[in-house]
Design brief:
Elements: H1 4-15, E1 19-20, H2 21-28, H3 32-44, E2 48-53, E3 56-61, H4 66-79, H5 82-91, E4 97-98, H6 99-106, H7 110-122, E5 126-131, E6 134-139, H8 141-152
Antiparallel strand pairs: 1-3, 2-3, 4-6, 5-6
Length: about 150
């Protein structure tokens, strides 16, 4: 690869799978238009893959190992929403979570906590059970892998 800027971008994407476009812009000091052009070249030449999570763009290196490729769309969705990321991190604490305990920890309404927990279940990041009248949630093995990747960044 002849461009030092693209080499720098590729190394950044390898170091931080799921890195956001604006984070890359801060790293290399390029204008958004110039950065998008360089990232498009890296995509066309097969070095990186782009994933969209809401309005944000996330990048991974194509040579990333298969487990990362499998979780990157989920990782992109989590990294684009601070509340969901915090909820997932809280889910790693021992024991089951309830809507009440998560709403208290996050400082949100129980309905908002339930929506976030249901999102985690829908993505396969947590499982839902029942303990008496309360719904309980436990982090899944996939959820633990996603948290491990979040902790790398």
């Amino acid at each position: 690869m002849s461009s030092p800027v693209r080499r720098q971008l590729l190394e950044a994407v390898r170091r931080d799978p799921g890195v956001r476009l604006h984070e890359l812009a801060q790293l290399v000091g390029l204008s958004p238009g110039s950065l998008k052009w360089h990232m498009a070249v890296l995509q066309r030449t097969g070095f990186v893959t782009e994933h969209k999570g809401g309005p944000a763009r996330f990048y991974s290196a194509r040579d990333a190992f298969p487990e990362l490729r499998a979780i990157l769309p989920i990782l992109a969705g989590i990294r684009s929403n601070q509340r969901k990321e915090t909820l997932l991190r809280l889910a790693t604490e021992p024991g089951p979570m309830t809507t009440t305990s998560m709403s208290a920890a996050l400082g949100v309404t129980p309905g908002s906590a339930r929506n976030g927990l249901d999102f985690l279940v829908a993505q396969g990041l947590a499982t839902k059970g029942q303990a008496g009248p309360a719904a309980t949630y436990l982090i899944s093995p996939l959820g633990r892998r996603v948290v491990a990747w979040l902790n790398k960044g």
